[in-house]
Design goal:
Layout: H1 45-54, H2 56-76, E1 81-89, H3 110-121, H4 124-134, H5 149-163, E2 164-168, E3 174-181, H6 184-242, E4 246-250, E5 258-262, H7 263-294, H8 299-302, H9 305-325, H10 333-422, E6 430-434, H11 447-472, H12 479-486, E7 490-495, H13 503-508, H14 513-526, E8 536-541, H15 548-560, E9 566-570, H16 588-593, H17 598-601, E10 603-604, E11 610-613, H18 622-626, H19 630-641, E12 644-648, H20 657-662, E13 667-673, H21 679-691, E14 696-704, H22 730-741
Parallel strand pairs: 7-14, 8-12, 8-13, 9-11, 9-12, 13-14
Antiparallel strand pairs: 1-3, 1-6, 2-3, 4-5, 10-11
Helix pairs in contact: 2-11, 4-5, 4-6, 6-10, 7-10, 9-10, 14-15
């Protein structure tokens, strides 16, 4: 912005700021954050709303573009049709070719089995089979004279793999096979062909599995049979060489099983049993014989009929003898005769008893001889059997090998018969529940869905772009940026005026937005020190055309309205803005060179309390003049003559003048154009001013547009005028509280 002004007697025309509102700043102390840097900015709902309001046009444009693109793509996209067929998958029994035992099907988990069938439906082999069955290689768009049939079939199979989808139905054994194509009839044919070919392939795999099992068992049977015959020959040859003869006997387990045992073993068992019986007979005979020797009244003696008869007769004679003894004397002839007969019976009993004892001794001797004979035979058979066992170790090994081979052969033979019977029976595990019908309406493109998707994509892209631009844009745009990014207090916000509007018109109207905004700045300056507005104020900016000179004029006029005398010094010796009424060239440059007095260089204005010290002639070395030390003397003299001195200085960046001038003034005001100055440049200017020892009272944000900055409320203040009604939002309240705390 060019801040050139006309004659100071009548405030010259200023380049307009634009239109907008202004925030009344209260409190003026510098806001310095811990660590020397600006406070981090938080992403609050109000900040989000500000960004949305600022970039609403970008968000709206992106959303409209995405919706229009989605609509256009939906109209330009070729319609696609979807055909669906439903298959039922039952449990399938797989044949185990080498299972030992009854024929049980391989039961698989339902989920694994269904997923396996789904994978088979998506297989490349099935796609090639369907392509050949439908002759897709000879139909458009696959038919081409430049390629052979195999390549066309392969291309058609690849097309089918991409257009076929298989999804299991939840909590069931159903599979849904869908086919997508631009031709509805072709989609239905492909879906039905997939189902039919899948069923045929399953049946073929079952018969192939049975055939494989049968061939495998035949090979194994031949091998095991040869091994069994060889082991039997080895067993027989070894038995003949060693003279081992065995007999098949009952195994005794109650199952009808029989085992082979050697003859010597059988003989030993029989002789051992006979030996036990003979030993028992010998012991019994010996006991009877021993009893007969020690006691004649044994069972054998008493049980003898002769002994019993003789004993009975003797008892009768003895009874007669005792009966007659009471009548006759013992020597009586009858008594002597009875006595003689009793003695004869006693002799006969003794003879018979002796004969019984001799018989018992003979039985005992015979039993002992039999026992000894059997014992000798058992010992001989034991020796022979031990020798046989030593020779039967290898025989047992060969016999075990024969038994193993025979069991394996019998099991394989039984399994072979079972496979032959079960190979041609059973039901197919796959059946068609619903055949695919020719679709009547396309499923793509889905215009409502695409439009909604475009809307969502536009919103995401629009908001993302807005926040990305906001994040990349580090210019000073809002009063919060003065505090957060630069660490200085906002003194006020000057609204931007419409194009073609002269700023002097608004400054001449005390109720205009610009006038009210600068009055807010003056009010803030009154509370900046304990004695009110600083005696000397230096106003500068980061670069040229930010509204610095206009702000100097407005602040000087606002202070002069209070009745204080104000001297405005144009210290921009490189590009001065103000000139006196008389057109005299005497000014600050003359005073710095020591050629004129201060009183002669001061020019009056149309306001009685406002005076001007112009820059004078542009010197070739402004920085050297300002660094000479005379400016401080001039400023001291001016502050003695006037209530307030306001210095309009040059921009900070690229020049050494501003830090020199700011160091001599009581306070410094930074003028920053909203949305034009980047944070790095503005922060560098602030740091340069502070490095010179100056005190920055705050900043003025010029050319501010509430709508462009994303604020949905105005900043202007005009009491009694609805046009400039003051509407204070959350952010200005927070800013004023921050200034009060400062």
């Amino acid at each position: 912005m060019n801040d050139q002004a006309g004659s100071f007697a009548s405030p010259g025309p200023m380049v307009p700021f634009g239109s907008g509102g202004a925030l009344v700043g209260t409190g003026l102390r510098e806001v310095v954050f811990a660590g020397g840097g600006p406070a981090p900015k938080r992403l609050t709902p109000s900040e989000i709303w500000r960004v949305v309001l600022k970039w609403w046009w970008l968000i709206g444009a992106i959303v409209c573009g995405c919706v229009i693109a989605a609509f256009a793509l939906s109209l330009l996209t070729e319609p696609e049709y979807r055909a669906r067929t439903t298959l039922e998958i039952n449990r399938e029994g797989g044949v185990q070719p080498v299972q030992m035992g009854e024929l049980n099907p391989l039961q698989m988990q339902d989920r694994d089995f269904i997923n396996t069938q789904a994978g088979l439906l998506r297989s490349r082999a099935l796609a090639e089979r369907v392509a050949r069955g439908l002759n897709l290689g000879n139909t458009p768009p696959f038919a081409s004279a430049s390629t052979d049939r195999a390549a066309r079939d392969s291309l058609a199979a690849s097309f089918l793999e991409g257009s076929v989808a298989v999804e299991p139905v939840r909590d069931s054994r159903l599979l849904e096979l869908t086919v997508e194509s631009t031709d509805p009839g072709l989609a239905a044919r492909i879906a039905n062909s997939y189902a039919e070919n899948f069923i045929r392939a399953n049946l073929e795999r079952r018969f192939e599995a049975t055939s494989y099992a049968r061939n495998f068992l035949e090979q194994r049977l031949g091998t095991v049979k040869s091994r069994l015959e060889q082991s039997e020959r080895q067993l027989v040859a070894y038995a003949q060489a060693q003279g081992i003869v065995t007999l098949n006997v009952d195994s005794g387990n109650g199952e009808g099983g029989r085992s082979e045992q050697p003859i010597d073993a059988n003989s030993l068992i029989a002789l051992n049993q006979a030996l036990q019986e003979a030993r028992a007979e010998r012991i019994s005979a010996e006991q009877r014989y021993r009893q007969a020797q020690g006691n004649r009244s044994t069972t054998e003696v008493l049980g003898n009929p002769t002994v019993q008869s003789l004993t009975t007769q003797r008892a009768e004679l003895q009874a007669q003898y005792q009966e007659k003894l009471g009548i006759f004397q013992p020597d009586y002839p009858v008594m002597v005769q009875l006595k003689s007969r009793i003695e004869s019976l006693d002799a006969a009993l003794a003879t018979v008893t002796g004969n019984v004892s001799s018989s018992l001794r003979s039985e005992f001797a015979a039993a002992r001889a039999k026992e000894n004979e059997l014992d000798s035979q058992v010992n001989a058979l034991k020796s022979s059997l031990l020798n046989l066992r030593a020779r039967s170790i290898q025989y047992t090994i060969l016999q075990r090998e024969v038994d193993t081979n025979r069991s394996l052969y019998d099991a394989l033979l039984q399994r072979y018969k079972e496979v032959g019977v079960a190979g041609g029976v059973g039901t197919n595990a796959v059946s068609v529940v619903d055949r695919a019908q020719v679709p009547v309406a396309p499923f793509k493109p889905n215009l409502p869905f695409n439009v909604v998707l475009g809307l969502l994509a536009g919103l995401v892209l629009g908001f993302g772009s807005a926040f990305a631009l906001e994040w990349m844009d580090d210019t000073i745009k809002t009063p919060e940026d003065l505090t957060n990014k630069l660490g200085i207090a906002p003194l006020g916000i000057i609204p931007a005026l419409p194009k073609g509007t002269a700023v002097e018109n608004d400054l001449g109207d005390a109720r205009s937005q610009v006038s009210e905004s600068y009055q807010s700045v003056r009010t803030a300056l009154q509370f900046s020190t304990d004695h009110g507005v600083p005696k000397s104020l230096f106003v500068t900016s980061t670069r040229a055309a930010e509204g610095k000179s206009s702000s100097v004029l407005a602040i000087a006029q606002s202070i002069s309205r209070l009745g204080s005398t104000v001297l405005l010094i144009d210290a921009d010796l490189r590009k001065p803005t103000f000139r006196g009424t008389s057109g005299d060239s005497a000014g600050l440059s003359n005073l710095l060179s020591g050629s004129d007095d201060l009183e002669k260089c001061i020019h009056p204005t149309d306001r009685d309390s406002l005076f001007l010290l112009p820059a004078g002639k542009i010197p070739p070395n402004p920085a050297e003049l300002l660094a000479g030390g005379r400016f401080e003397l001039i400023l001291q003299r001016a502050t003695q003559m006037f209530d307030h001195v306001i210095v309009d200085g040059p921009p900070v960046l690229g020049l050494a003048d501003a830090p020199l001038l700011a160091s001599h003034c009581e306070g410094t005001i930074m003028v920053i154009e909203a949305g034009k100055i980047r944070r790095v440049a503005a922060l560098s200017a602030v740091e340069r001013i502070r490095a010179g020892g100056a005190r920055i009272m705050g900043g003025i944000l010029t050319k501010f547009s509430a709508t462009q900055s994303g604020y949905g409320y105005g900043y202007g203040y005009g009491y009694g005028d609805d046009k400039y009604s003051y509407r204070l939002g959350e952010e200005p309240k927070r800013q004023i509280e921050l200034l009060k705390r400062a």
